[in-house]
Specification:
Blueprint lengths: L3 H19 L4 E4 L2 E3 L1 H12 L5 H8 L3 H13 L3 E6 L2 E9 L1 H16 L2 H9 L2 H31 L1
């Protein structure tokens, strides 16, 4: 029987390595607006999770809250996002996309309809239970990494 654990680890390592490379490449989805993938996907989460705040956005993306706040300020300066406060909670800041942010989001979706289409077509061709299994494994691995990194960060603060 093949060592699936080793193959799994190698596949995750390759994904992480290529993701690290990809995360350094700015893409211009609309003329004059260049974003790193992490920025684009954070903007995407703001759009897909209406009324999201910094804490929730940090949890969804795995990006630290301080980085989310900095990114949000930059998005505001670039006219992609606006911040607002809810009447029920004047302390918390919430985010929503502007029309420019929506334009970038739609251009990003168009980009992905071409780039990566073969992979997503394969994934979508899998039976729904197989899709759910893949998603379960990926989500569990993300949770595992979140816990591992959280413990590491806590021990670094204690040390």
């Amino acid at each position: 029987m093949p060592d699936c654990r080793s193959e799994f680890d190698e596949a995750i390592l390759r994904i992480c390595s290529y993701t690290n490379i990809d995360n350094r490449i700015h893409r211009e989805y609309v003329p004059g607006t260049r974003l790193l993938p992490r920025e684009m996907h954070t903007l995407e989460k703001i759009i897909l999770h209406p009324g999201v705040n910094t804490t929730r956005l940090a949890h969804i993306t795995g990006v630290p809250k301080g980085t989310i706040s900095k990114m949000a300020r930059e998005f505001m300066q670039r006219g992609l996002v606006e911040c607002y406060k809810d009447d029920g909670n004047r302390k918390e800041i919430y985010y929503r996309a502007t029309q420019s942010g929506m334009d970038v989001f739609h251009a990003h979706n168009k980009f992905h309809s071409v780039v990566g289409n073969e992979f997503y077509s394969y994934f979508e061709s899998l039976p729904e239970p197989s899709q759910r299994l893949v998603l379960d494994v990926l989500c569990r691995y993300a949770d595992y990494m979140e816990d591992l990194c959280g413990r590491h960060l806590k021990s670094a603060v204690i040390s």
